[in-house]
Amino acid sequence: MNNQTVSVAELQTRQWVSNVIVKYNFCPFARKEVENNCIHYYTSQSVSIDDAVMEMLEQCNQLNSLAERETTLIMFEQGFIDFEEFLDLVDLANALLVAQGFEGKYQIANFHPDYVFADSDESDAANYTNRSPFPTLHLIREASMSAALDEYNEPESIPEHNINLARRKGIDFWQALLENCKKPSM
């Protein structure tokens, strides 16, 4: 991090990436990107879907021009608190990714404080594999993801491993961990 003011969303999301995603290996590729400092954290103040997708497209353009930037997390500090509204944003963001010619170049993963998988119960601890401090769009370079998956033994087992770990630890564990990410770090 540089000397510029860092948003609450960025601070909490960095803690979440480190203390949840990397520590519990939800994404086996994240540690390398954290250690190489090539994750860009972008805090958005957008509250409208139109503004949010325009910012997402701008972040795609920045990924195009900045090869050292491996991936971008767009955290919505003010907007999309409602999970259903966030899913509308995700749908439009994916559609615009295609319409703007980024299909095959970038993909979007999404995270939300109230994330619930389709056909899942709200109290299923497995939802915590996609719960984050703030509504977040994760822009991933497809070529990098493909290369990482090619070198990973049984990549199809990653989601199942994450679900099993989440359920084994239980909802109280993950709730406390996510709340800890919201506390100031020393």
In short:
This protein has seven helices and four strands; from the N terminus they run ααβαβαββααα. By secondary structure, it is an alpha+beta fold. It has one domain (8-181).
Describe this structure in words.
The chain is α+β, with helices and mostly antiparallel strands and 186 residues long. The chain has one domain (8-181). The protein has helices at 8-22, 30-35, 49-65, 83-99, 142-151, 158-169, 171-181, and strands at residues 39-44, 71-76, 106-111, 136-141. It has a 4-stranded mixed beta sheet with strand order 1-2-4-3, sandwiched between helices. Helix 3 (49-65) crosses helix 4 (83-99).
Query: What is the average of the pLDDT values?
Result: 92
Main sheet characteristics: 4 strands, mixed
What topology, given as strand order, has the largest sheet?
A: 1-2-4-3
Question: Over the alpha carbons, how many angstroms does the gyration radius reach?
Answer: 16 Å
Shape: globular
> What is the SS-derived class?
alpha+beta
Task: Encode the helix/strand succession as letters.
Answer: HHEHEHEEHHH
Helices, by number, come to 7
Between the first and last Cα atoms, what is the distance in angstroms? 15 Å
Number of E-type strands: 4
The number of domains is 1
Helix content: 40-55%
- Low-confidence segments, given as residue ranges, are none
Beta-strand portion reads: 5-15%
